Amino acid sequence: xxxxxxxxxxxxxxxxxxxxxxxxxxxxxxxxxxxxxxxxxxxxxxxxxxxxxxxxxxxxxxxxxxxxxxxxxxxxxxxxxxxxxxxxxxxxxxxxxxxxxxxxxxxxxxxxxxxxxxxxxxxxxxxxxxxxxxxxxxxxxxxxxxxxxxxxxxxxxxxxxxxxxxxxxxxxxxxxxxxxxxxxxxx
Length: 187
Fold this sequence. Notes:
Order of helices and strands: EHEHEEEEEHEEHE
Strand order of the largest sheet: 2-6-5-1-4-3
Oligomer: single chain
Distance between the termini: 53 Å
Largest sheet: 6 strands, mixed
Radius of gyration: 18 Å
Number of strands: 10
Helix content: 10-25%
Strand content: 25-35%
Shape: elongated
Number of helices: 4
């Protein structure tokens, strides 16, 4: 079993071409968010080949990340669609109110812009939180979607309040929303 132990930051043109061929041959990983948060695990490529991941604790693997083994072999990681709770509202204020309550509970949260003035929140299923949001007047549904929650204001993975945080601040990045100074969410 090959062990991949290094992140690749910049790809050569040859490596980019290799990844295209690997995708055609099923030589890539699709991983859910919980797995992508771990630094050491076994996984199975789409083609059935078993691999090991043994990375330094440098943050969550993100959709599109590439890892390399000591021989120089590379594989690409993709965010696997998983069951999530999707939250929408009739207006931006109500959705912002829901985001406030989820953030106050340190819930890893993904923000998605779905079009002109339409937004949604996504989080891992929790029936208590879903019920709270419904009581706040929000629309809640279960969907299959890749999960890339926000990193937080400082982008380094969080801080401590001196309590056990079962849902830790995830060191992840969402490229879905982009520059919040351009967002219409707060209007």
